[in-house]
Amino acid sequence: MDIIYNYTNLYPEQKDHSPENRIYDAIYTGSIRSTRGIFQVIQAIKLARDKGYLYKILFIGPVFEKNLKKKVLHLLKQYKLQEHITIEDPVPYEKISRFYEQSKVGLIIFSNNAVNRTILPIKLFEYMAYGLPVLSSNFGHMKKYTDMEETGLTVDPSNPKDICEKLITLLTNHELYEKCAANGMNATNNKYR
């Protein structure tokens, strides 16, 4: 058996990771599925809004599940979050960096199941390379690399309140934000190229 490591080849030209002037408070890139936290993130953003935090979240990727986009749009309308959560169609891989540069935090909120416990999402390393602190699920390789490299916080992916609180922490604790951003860039520059 061969092991093929699939690390990112996206690296920013400029190394400024300051969150000022970025449009999106958090970004998720990749297949949009019910097992990849979209409903929990929507609920978390509603909780954040109810606490006075008007976050903007961007999802970019294909929606494969039948009726999922319709359900998501209905929930956004029900919660009055249409201005807070945007779902974009996939963009060519070489153009995704533009969206990373406009975002503050990278999301990997995957459900705890057998597949997600074994995968190592490349988006983790892309977020790190762009100085985006990571908010990831609290299991598997996502937790391992997020904790080991101290690049963000892990959450219970089934708990919108946990997601909400830790997103607020990343976005309001400037010392933690800077530490996670710097650690991510350092790790991808020196270990995961």
Describe the structure.
This protein is α/β, with parallel strands linked by helices and 193 residues long. Helices cover 42% and strands 15% of the residues. The protein has eight helices and six strands. It has helices at residues 38-50, 68-79, 96-100, 114-118, 122-129, 140-148, 160-172, 174-190; strands at residues 24-29, 57-60, 85-88, 103-108, 134-137, 152-155. The protein has a six-stranded parallel beta sheet with strand order 3-2-1-4-5-6, sandwiched between helices. β1, α1 (38-50) and β2 form a beta-alpha-beta unit. It is globular. The protein starts with 23 loop residues before the first strand and ends with a helix.
Whole-angstrom Rg? 16 Å
Give the tally of β-strands. Answer: 6
Task: Give the termini distance in whole angstroms.
Answer: 22 Å
How confident is the prediction overall: mean pLDDT? 91
Class from helix and strand fractions: alpha/beta
Question: Poorly predicted ranges (pLDDT <50, ≥5 residues)?
Answer: none
Largest sheet geometry: 6 strands, parallel
Please write the string of helix (H) and strand (E) elements: EHEHEHEHHEHEHH
Gross morphology: globular
Chain-wise SSE layout:
Layout: E1 24-29, H1 38-50, E2 57-60, H2 68-79, E3 85-88, H3 96-100, E4 103-108, H4 114-118, H5 122-129, E5 134-137, H6 140-148, E6 152-155, H7 160-172, H8 174-190
Parallel strand pairs: 1-2, 1-4, 2-3, 4-5, 5-6
